[in-house]
Amino acid sequence: MTTRRTSPWLALVVLMAISTVGFIDRIVVNVLVEPIKGEFALSDAQVSLMGAAFTVLNIGVGLVIARYAERARRLTLISLGTLLWSAATAACGAAATWVQLLVARMGVGLGEAIGLPSNQSVISDYFPPNRRGLAISVLMLAPPVGAFIGFVGGGWIAQEFDWRFTFLIAAVPGVVLGVIAWLFVAEPKRGQHDAGAGDEVPPMSDVLRRLFVLRSGRNLVIGSALAAMLGFGLNYFFTSLMIRRFEVGLAEAGLYSGLIASLPAAISVIGSGWLGDKLGAKNPAAYALVPGICLIVGGPIYAFAITRESLGLLLGLVSVATFLNFGYLGITYAALQNLMHPRMRATAFAVLNVVYGIASALGPFLIGLLSDRMALSHGPADGLAVAMAISGLVYVWAGAHYLLAARHVGPDMVRMHGAREAAALRE
């Protein structure tokens, strides 16, 4: 008797939990920047290399695994990858040198390259196109929920015990969830909600064409990559800013960072996904207009907020900016997945993971370099604040690409799927 179930919501909850654990294991280093920097005597630019170490294997291996996932059982890859990155996270806590820590972070990236590319493909096969905006937005609650757990829990554990213990604790949930996914979540039939879906796997060139040649796809990718670069970079140093500028403790700084990076972003991710599905029924451009407008408004608010000298005012305004600047997460993936053939979706995620992986490594590194430069004239605390404010304005650039994408989403859907199927996506 099989224990596996075909419930869409069971699959969504389990895979969202796995994605959340993956994000915790990725982002928990952010709250540990100061103790790791102090123990190994590192600069801001050096300590930011933990993001680059994660990316080294993650982006390359992810592409290879994704192409295999278009033909293989995806839940097996998800389970194995989750177990692997959890073991590597534990290894981070056992690292005795800076080099060993970087190698362990590479292992986390490798495990996530195996375990995560198939998630959106599985969910897209469980939910029909007109419900994918909300479903994938629920899946993309992983960043805000993971940020809350990583910042708040990680900061408290590091302060009360040790930064190494934080990694060890973070590794445990992944082991449990990897087993649950293997035992209880069934592999869905590919393309069961997509007209004309077949067993043939389209070539890589077709995936790249839909992502980078189609004007809607290209602008969605560029805009979301810029937003992701800023999100990773600004979140990477937010806890450090609290400690340096306002002299709060590690646990308190982690609490502030976790609350701001989680609740406003979670509401925004779900709200934009729901709004995109609702408005997209009449106008597909909504999938790009909603995040575009939010980013153009949110960027200047963040730049103004991060330089405030009152901690309360800073936290309040950054919360507003976070609500506006993170709504792009789920709705962008949904729009891009709807442009894909059912046997392109794992590959599309992996290609996007390359783009976002590079962005996630560049964000902390560029802000770290700018912070080191600004520190020469403004000091370590104010220099970091100025660097973050300047970087926050790039959200406006990201939003402009979403507005460009909005002009082409509808026509590109017709080009890729035909008029009848494109209309069905909105029913």
From TrEMBL:
<dbReference type="InterPro" id="IPR044770">
    <property type="entry name" value="MFS_spinster-like"/>
</dbReference>
<dbReference type="GO" id="GO:0016020">
    <property type="term" value="C:membrane"/>
</dbReference>
<feature type="transmembrane region" description="Helical">
    <location>
        <begin position="311"/>
        <end position="336"/>
    </location>
</feature>
<dbReference type="InterPro" id="IPR011701">
    <property type="entry name" value="MFS"/>
</dbReference>
<keyword id="KW-0812">Transmembrane</keyword>
<feature type="transmembrane region" description="Helical">
    <location>
        <begin position="49"/>
        <end position="68"/>
    </location>
</feature>
<dbReference type="InterPro" id="IPR036259">
    <property type="entry name" value="MFS_trans_sf"/>
</dbReference>
<feature type="transmembrane region" description="Helical">
    <location>
        <begin position="134"/>
        <end position="157"/>
    </location>
</feature>
<feature type="transmembrane region" description="Helical">
    <location>
        <begin position="287"/>
        <end position="305"/>
    </location>
</feature>
<keyword id="KW-0472">Membrane</keyword>
<feature type="transmembrane region" description="Helical">
    <location>
        <begin position="348"/>
        <end position="371"/>
    </location>
</feature>
<dbReference type="GO" id="GO:0022857">
    <property type="term" value="F:transmembrane transporter activity"/>
</dbReference>
<feature type="transmembrane region" description="Helical">
    <location>
        <begin position="75"/>
        <end position="96"/>
    </location>
</feature>
<dbReference type="Pfam" id="PF07690">
    <property type="entry name" value="MFS_1"/>
</dbReference>
<feature type="transmembrane region" description="Helical">
    <location>
        <begin position="383"/>
        <end position="405"/>
    </location>
</feature>
<protein>
    <submittedName>
        <fullName>MFS transporter</fullName>
    </submittedName>
</protein>
<feature type="transmembrane region" description="Helical">
    <location>
        <begin position="9"/>
        <end position="29"/>
    </location>
</feature>
<feature type="domain" description="Major facilitator superfamily (MFS) profile">
    <location>
        <begin position="11"/>
        <end position="409"/>
    </location>
</feature>
<keyword id="KW-1133">Transmembrane helix</keyword>
<feature type="transmembrane region" description="Helical">
    <location>
        <begin position="220"/>
        <end position="243"/>
    </location>
</feature>
<feature type="transmembrane region" description="Helical">
    <location>
        <begin position="255"/>
        <end position="275"/>
    </location>
</feature>
<dbReference type="InterPro" id="IPR020846">
    <property type="entry name" value="MFS_dom"/>
</dbReference>
<feature type="transmembrane region" description="Helical">
    <location>
        <begin position="163"/>
        <end position="185"/>
    </location>
</feature>
<keyword id="KW-0813">Transport</keyword>
